[in-house]
Records
---
Amino acid sequence: MNFYKARNDLGKRKRFSRGVIVGEFESTLTRCSECGITWSMPGFGRWFNDMTYNLRIYMDRDHHPDFSGVSGYPIVSTAAKTMLAETFSNAVDFCDIEMVPAESLPEELKKEIRTRNGSRELKNISNTPPQYHRLLLKHGIEADYQKSNIELAVDCAMCGFKRYVTTGSSYIRDEPMYLIESTWKGYGVFNVECRGNHLFCTEKFVETYKQNKLTGLEFEQVQLV
Ligand SMILES: [Zn+2]
């Protein structure tokens, strides 16, 4: 059995669109007094798995892939959702997203984008974004952290926050990862705890993706132990 890590294809001749969160994240959690991490920040991703959170996004351009992302979390087109629901239904869950067209963006946000990224960036924003869906991966596989050169840098007993890093670095570098084959539960698509938002998959997933002519991913074979 071969396993693969999927990474986002940014687009060859024309760049693919990415999702960007509209508006402030509504915080329900506060800063942890033990580890100092504020969970409410979008970057920490808890909102992504919160099915009740109404995610509102715009797409930063008009070339839309089937697999894209928002703040590093996977979002999929309706075609990709259909394929996943048909072939890998026990491995995934979905949640709808509110798509905001360029013309409906709040004036304040437009001003902010113009100031930060220039008016060209603003002009690129899609006015006809297709419907995307949050993709939640329900199952995991374990990695050999020692062999993969990864360590758990923060493991807060109080709030449960975990941060994995590549040894000697402050984040996880894009280096070869070793997965433990015996921990695979038989699903076609799954994640690895230290890379919670990254999609890993089997050869069957890669084949189905290609048969359905889906776009937005590139696959790299991973090592097994
Ligand atoms: Zn904490």
---
Amino acid sequence: MTEKVSWRAQMALGYAPLDEEHEAFIPVVNEALEVLEKKDFVGAEDVFDKCYAFARTHFSHEEALMEKLDYPDIMAHMKSHQIFIKNISELRQLYEFAPEDEKMEVFEQLANFLNVWFIGHVLSRDSLLKPFLKSLPPEA
Ligand SMILES: [Fe+2]
Ligand SMILES: [Fe+2]
């Protein structure tokens, strides 16, 4: 069983609105791991829905901030967000069309992807925003 993910101090960007959204996604990564353990088909749909909701709200929030800050590497960062959306969509399609006895194999790919992508993205791409976010008022 893959170990549960928890919030790490080095994931903090020092900007509360984004930190809160990142922290709120950690339970979704863990929910994916639990779904896998329990072969919970209803929970699996819920995780896919939460991934889309996260992409919709968090990415648009982060991308609007990057625009506002004239962040020079915005294109590469947005591309990383698009890769997330593309992977989630492809895995959902595979999951929907897979026979029942193969669904959890597909879901395992999702759980692994969420774990690796999310932590990696926050620690790398998102962390590069830190010096730029410093110029914002706390609740901008
Ligand atoms: Fe990001
Ligand atoms: Fe982010």
